[in-house]
Amino acid sequence: MNALTPPIVDLTQNGARLDASVRIVGTGLLGASIGLALTDKGLDVALADASPSQLRLAIDYGAGRAASPNDDPDLIVVAVPPDVIADVVAAELARYPRAVVTDVASVKTAPYLDLAGRGLDLSLYIGSHPMAGRERGGAISARADLFVGRPWVVCRDASTPRRALAIIEDLALDLGATPIEMTPDQHDEAVGLVSHVPQLVASLLAARLVDAPDEALRLAGQGLRDTVRIASSTPELWVQILGANSAPVAEALSALRADLDAVIGALEDTDAVGARRRIADAIAAGNVGVARLPGKHGQDRRFAQIVVMVDDTPGQLGKLLTELGEINVNMEDLRLEHSPGTAVGLAEISVLPEVKQRTIEDLEARGWRIASV
User: Fold this and answer.
1) Would you list the DSSP string of 295-318?
2) Interval 124-183: pLDDT, tens
3) Nearest CA among 79, 72, 21 for reference residue 50
C-alpha cells in the first residue's frame, strides 16, 4: 500500500489540477460533495440522478448543472448504491467510450469481478473509494471539504493507462484527499476492519439502548456517545455494503467474537486464576491498537489531552478557541461534553505533547480552569 506520487502538471487558473469536463452520476452525499468541490474550482460539472428531486436539490445547492445529451465528459464519477454500481459503470463506459470512469463505492472487488465477467474493456475504468462520509446522506448533507485530509483509495489494474490514472489522482488531489493505491482485495479487507466492522459494533451496542431505562440513559457520557456515533447510518445502504463485503467482515467479527468470549469467561468468574489478567490484557491491547491510528498529519502519534471547564454561557467556546490561537497553539482535535442542567461543559482539546504544559500554563494565566490533565 503506497501513496501515489502526485503527477507533475500545470495547474489551471482556478488552481485545479484537473483540466476536464466532469459527469457525476448519483447526487447523494458523495456525488454532491464532489460536485460542490469541483464547481468551487471552476470546473464544468454535469449531474445525473435517477431521482429528479434529488438531482434538483443537488443543483440548487451548487453541485453542478443538469446533464445534457450533448455532453462529452472527460471524467465520469459514479456515486450510486453498491448494488447498481456495475450496471451504471457498464452503461457509462458504453455511452462515453473515451471517458475515464471511476466509482466511489465502499466495496471494490464485487463490482470489478461483475464488470470483468461481462467481457467489457475496463482499461478506462478505475475503481476508487474516498474514505470520507457522514452519518446522514443526501445532497442536503454534502460539503465541499468532505474529502480534505482523507485517504482516497485507487484500484487500478495492469491495463490502466497512465493518462487515466493521472486523472483519478488529480481528482483526489483537487478534493484535498491523499491518493493511495491498493488492489480491490486489499481495499475490501482493510475497510472491512476499519469501517464495516465498526459500523456493526456501533449499531449492536446502540441497539442495547432501545430498552434501557431512562435513568440509565441520563447517565450516558462521551464514551458511549463516541462509540455509537455512527449507529445513525442508513440500514438500506449498509445491507448492500455488508452483503458485498461479507467475507472480510465475517472474518474480523469472528476474531472479535473470540475476544469477547474470552472476556465474558473472565467476567463470569473474576476470582479464577488468570481472569483479571485476561481483562487487563484486553484493555492493554486496545491501548496499543488505538495508538497505531494515524494522527491529523498522517503520522502515528498520540496527542496530549487537556480538559478545560467552559461556562455554559454564549461565546465561551469561541473565546477558548480564539485564545488558543492567540497563544499560538494548534488544536489537533476537540471533544465537547455537557450534561443537561449543568452550568459548565468540558472541552477536551488535543495538542502536541511538547506544547501541553505551556498550553495549560497560558490558559490558566488567562483565567481558564483545567478540569484534568
Assistant:
1) -TTSSB-PPEEEEEEEESSTTHHH
2) 999 999 998 776 778 888 899 999 889 999 998 878 889 999 999 999 999 999 999 999
3) 79
Question: How confident is the model over 206-226, as pLDDT tens digits?
Answer: 999 999 999 999 888 888 988
Whether residue 197 is predicted with pLDDT greater than 60 in this model: the reply is: yes
The per-residue pLDDT for range 151-168, each reduced to its tens digit, is 999 998 878 889 999 999
Distances (CA, A) of 176 to 24, 41, 172, 189: 18, 12, 6, 25
Looking at residue 137, its amino acid is G
CB contact set of 348 (below 8 Å; sequence gap of 6+): 222, 305, 306, 307, 308, 334, 335, 336, 337
Residue-wise pLDDT for 333-367, tens only, equals 888 876 665 677 888 888 888 899 999 999 999 99
Which positions ≥6 away from 4 have C-beta within 8 Å?
Answer: 154, 169, 179, 180, 181
Task: Calculate Rg over the CA atoms of the chain.
Answer: 24
65 pairs with which residues across the strands?
46
Collapsed DSSP state (helix, strand, coil) of residue 196: helix
Tell me the C-alpha distance between 215 and 179, whole Å. 47
Nearest CA to 301 among 348, 335, 352?
352
For β-strands 2-3 and 178-181, DSSP reports them as: antiparallel
Label residue 206 exposed, middle or buried (CB < 10 Å: 0-12, 13-18, 19+): middle
Q: Where are the alpha helices (DSSP H) in the chain?
A: 29-40, 52-60, 85-95, 109-117, 162-174, 184-191, 197-207, 214-217, 222-228, 235-244, 246-268, 275-291, 316-326, 356-365
Q: What predicted TM-score, i.e. pTM, was given to this entire model?
A: 0.76
Residue 105: closest CA among 89, 91, 121: 89
